[in-house]
């Protein structure tokens, strides 16, 4: 074309002996080109195009220009891949930022939750401490309320002994008054502490003979009441082999006295109440037992039922068979609390097969 237009040379035809795809296509579509003088595009396969462009210089058909075109879409593919990579990077960054945001929010939420739980725990702990303190104060108040009546009775016995004091009974009076006074001092000591030290209850210095304490309570407390022999009768069966205990004598007094009084107050079916008190010692098991029994009407069945803590209702606070007495239900409760919590003794109540009931105290000797 350059030689034809600029050098004014004629185009020499290509010899037919030289094979040419363009010549083949030209020969095949020559008539059509002359007739239409339009560009022809003949596809071969899916990515090769044979193009014949009519060559009409100076308005006269002179031939055709052949172009074999194979389009290269690599740059489009690269652009698509590059765009895809950018989109992938953007989405990955968004996902990462989303995860970081979720982590921050969850961490903040967990932190807030922990702080709220800590505040709730502190509040619950404070409330529980207040409840325990209040419960101890209530128990202390009720114990003092319950024992001050006994103290009044003991003071009456002391006054009576002092009025009847003579040179013939001075030794017996001294013995009783000393024991009475020690009990009064114990009551006063309990008024100072709603949770007395353990050493004031259990200590090696205490050498308490349980049989002697039982005899003293029976003979010098219950049988000193006017007409006591006509109201109730005691039968004692005390084992002399029962070892001493390292428990304060007057703490034992606080346990046994309300239990015996319970048999007298609640178990009478006749004019005379019979109370049986027995002690025995099992050397093989190294355990002692105190049994307080009566022949009365027994304990109502619902009071022998246990609560969720395994404690029988007769030993719970404000539980009594006296429905008309607002201040009842403390004796067995106080005795159980002292025996179980302070002395590590086991205490149980049951009805006898024939009649009446019994309360048994098991004492371990380690």
Task: Explain what this protein looks like in three dimensions.
There is one protein chain. This protein has helices spanning 2-6, 21-36, 74-163, 170-192, 210-222, 228-231, 249-266, 331-342, and strands spanning 40-44, 48-55, 63-69, 232-237, 273-282, 287-294, 346-351, 357-364. By secondary structure, the protein is α+β, with helices and mostly antiparallel strands. The protein has four domains: 2-70, no CATH class; 72-101; 131-196; 199-364, Heat Shock Protein 90 (2-Layer Sandwich). The strands form two sheets. Strands 4-5-6-8-7 form a five-stranded mixed beta sheet. The chain has a three-stranded antiparallel beta sheet with strand order 1-2-3, covered by helices on one side. α7 (249-266) links the parallel β4 (232-237) and β5. α3 (74-163) runs antiparallel to α4 (170-192) and α7 runs antiparallel to α8. It is rod-shaped, with a radius of gyration of 56 Å.
């Amino acid at each position: 074309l350059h030689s034809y237009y600029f050098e004014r040379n004629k185009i020499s035809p290509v010899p037919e002996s030289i094979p040419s795809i363009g010549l083949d296509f030209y020969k095949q579509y020559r008539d059509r080109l002359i007739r239409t003088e339009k560009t022809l595009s003949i596809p071969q396969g899916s990515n090769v195009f044979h193009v014949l462009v009519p060559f009409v210089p100076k308005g006269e058909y002179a031939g055709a220009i052949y172009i074999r075109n194979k389009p290269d879409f690599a740059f489009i593919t690269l652009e698509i891949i590059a765009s895809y990579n950018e989109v992938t990077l953007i989405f990955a960054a968004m996902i990462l930022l989303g995860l970081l945001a979720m982590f921050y929010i969850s961490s903040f939420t967990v932190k807030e939750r922990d702080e709220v739980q800590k505040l709730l725990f502190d509040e619950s702990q404070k409330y529980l401490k207040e409840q325990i303190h209040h419960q101890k104060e209530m128990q202390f108040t009720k114990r003092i309320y319950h024992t001050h009546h006994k103290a009044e009775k003991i003071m009456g016995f002391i006054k009576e002994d002092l009025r009847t004091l003579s040179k013939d009974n001075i030794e017996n009076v001294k013995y009783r008054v000393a024991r009475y006074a020690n009990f009064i001092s114990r009551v006063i000591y309990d008024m100072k502490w709603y949770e007395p030290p353990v050493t004031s209850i259990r200590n090696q210095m205490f050498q308490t003979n349980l049989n002697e304490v039982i005899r003293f309570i029976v003979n010098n407390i219950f049988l000193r009441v006017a007409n006591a022999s006509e109201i109730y009768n005691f039968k004692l069966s005390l084992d002399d082999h029962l070892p001493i205990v390292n428990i304060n004598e007057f703490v034992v007094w606080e346990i046994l006295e309300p239990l015996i009084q319970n048999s007298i107050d609640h178990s009478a079916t006749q004019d005379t109440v019979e109370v049986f008190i027995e002690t025995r010692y099992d050397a093989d098991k190294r355990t002692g037992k105190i049994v307080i029994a009566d022949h009365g009407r027994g304990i109502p069945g619902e009071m022998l039922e246990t609560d969720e803590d395994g404690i029988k209702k007769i030993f719970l606070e404000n539980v009594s068979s006296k429905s008309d007495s607002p201040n009842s239900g403390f004796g067995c409760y106080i005795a159980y609390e002292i025996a179980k919590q302070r002395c590590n003794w086991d205490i149980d109540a049951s009805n006898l097969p024939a009649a009446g009931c019994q309360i048994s105290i098991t004492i371990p000797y380690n």
